[in-house]
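Give me structure tokens for this 57-residue protein.
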Amino acid sequence: MQSKMHRDIRTFALTMTGLGSIIGSGWLFGSWKAAKVAGPAAIYAWIIGTIIILLMA
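Here you go.
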């Protein structure tokens, strides 16, 4: 029995994958930079930011 499932990756899917990778690594570098600038207080900034984003959503 042969499967009818066909995998196809087009330009849009590849573009979104690349964009997701860029954004994904960006927030990791953002937390590193915030820790360098704000020190231990950076965790409070992340908590406040999370609350604001949740309220907006």
